[in-house]
Amino acid sequence: MKNKYFKLNKDYILVIGKENKGLIYDLKNGNMIELEKTWTDVLVQLENGIKIENVKSS
């Protein structure tokens, strides 16, 4: 089976803040989506090249 990976679109960046909470910032229109810590942890793993099937959530 083919390995599955995830990357945010080039117009969106993941920003990590205090207490490892994050947000996704839309560079085109300035919108921000606040993330809970669990989702931030998942996206950090994915952005670091971990395969989707190997991602661990806390």
Fold blueprint:
Elements: E1 12-16, E2 22-26, E3 32-35, H1 37-47
Antiparallel strand pairs: 1-2, 2-3
Question: What tags apply to this protein structure?
Answer:
alpha+beta, 1 helix, 58 residues, single chain, three-stranded antiparallel β-sheet
Give an account of the 3D structure.
The protein is 19% helix and 24% strand. The chain has one helix and three strands, in the order βββα. It is flat, with a radius of gyration of 12 Å. β1 and β2 form a beta hairpin.
> Any idea what the shape is?
flat
Placed side by side, the strands forming the largest sheet appear as 1-2-3
Helix content: 10-25%
Radius of gyration (CA) equals 12 Å
Number of helices: 1
Number of strands: 3
Helix vs. strand class: alpha+beta
User: Could you give the distance between the termini?
Assistant: 27 Å
What is the overall pLDDT average?
A: 85
Poorly predicted regions are none
- Major β-sheet, in short? 3 strands, antiparallel
Following the backbone from N to C, one meets helices and strands in this order, namely EEEH
Q: Report the portion of residues in β strands.
A: 15-25%
Summarize the structure.
The chain is of the alpha+beta class and 58 residues long. The protein has one helix spanning 37-47; strands at residues 12-16, 22-26, 32-35.
